[in-house]
Automatic annotation (TrEMBL):
The keyword Transferase applies. Keywords: ATP-binding, Kinase, Membrane, Nucleotide-binding, Phosphoprotein, Transferase, Transmembrane, Transmembrane helix, Two-component regulatory system. The chain crosses the membrane at residues 20-46, 52-70, 126-154. This is histidine kinase. The keyword Membrane applies.
Amino acid sequence: MNRLRSLAVATFGRRALAALLYGVLALPLALVGCFLTLAGLVAGGLLSVTALGPWLLAGTVRGALALGAVQRGLARRLLGVRIEEPVPPRGSGVSGSAARGSGVRGSGVSGSRVLGWRRAVLGERVGWRAVASAVLAPFTAIFLYAAVVIGYVYGVLLTLHPVLKRLNYNTVHHPDGTVTHVSLEFFGYQVDSWPRWLIPFTLGLLLLTVAPRLLRLALTPHRALLTALLGPSPADRRIRTLEETRAQAVDDAAATLRRIERDLHDGTQARLVGLAMHLTMIRELVNTGATPDRLLAVVDTAQHNATQAITDLRHLVKGIHPPVLDEGLPAALATLAADSALPVELTTDIAARPSPAVESIAYFCAAELLANAAKHSGADAVAVEVTAGDGCLRLRVSDDGRGGAVIGAGSGLTGLLARVRTVDGTLTCESPPGGPTVVTVEVPM
């Protein structure tokens, strides 16, 4: 019974019906979009010698972009497939100072804006990729329609054949005067009577069973087409990532400068001010002939302030660039492993030394991951593996803890991901409930 219920949910559940609805809507939408797009391109091409032609082409491209937005929305709502929005066309409008010109120049400014919009729409690859998607979509949506017809339509008709054969049939008059009703016939072999109608009934159940999987297989080329042409291109995605990482790097640099300023102001500067005051007191005590015990007490306090100021400066410098990195990444990681609260198994295989920036990122990532393992994982041991090859440095930190670590859940992994992305690196986390947790950092050498 549970098996039948799960089969019914898989075939007629909410997700399956949503995919079925998408399969029904995809082909008509693609055909309408293809027809309108081709009509606009042909009309714009024929009228390109006139002033109307470029406007028809621009309107066609803009319509293809709108159709792409509709297709992305349907895929997101009905299939749960999220296709990133492409980078919008860059308008070439005029500056604000020109827009604030006199009333005589207002019409010229408005006209230049409109022409700039047309040039932006026709000159950007985003619009023409949407046009290509509109033209090619019917060729992939036909597979969805075929899957719907074969899996669901014929599946339902064959399953309900014992009922439908009484309503939908052909009357055949034989030469001997007899009359028969034929509803379903294969190569002259009728399957309307018991137990022959079990054949279409069983075949219909089989089609309904495989219908969701058939629909998913038919969806693969259509989804690949929409993702490739309606999402950002690899170059646009690369530019967007670089813009985000550049902004993150600027924010991190500003935050680091504020932290250094705060540490110097609240720690080292206060201690140096105290040291200067005690040195002044020592001078006054010497001039007034104070007792040696009182003088030594002030000297001890001044010496303590100087020692603490040196310690604070060392911690500050270590946070900016750990001095142990001057000896190389393996030595720095060995120091981290020795200072860790958990037993650490360290393995390093680095033939060529990476750049200082890469070494620093790998060091701070290892330090943060070891601290996370000690605080949150409940692990008994940690393994750190660092390898270099194919122009890439790989840091792999794994523990035998309880698992459940997620990027963006306040575990510190989000900050590490932002740090790694500043050098075009990647960070992945595999942490199923119950463990183990494996975090892999890859950065270019």
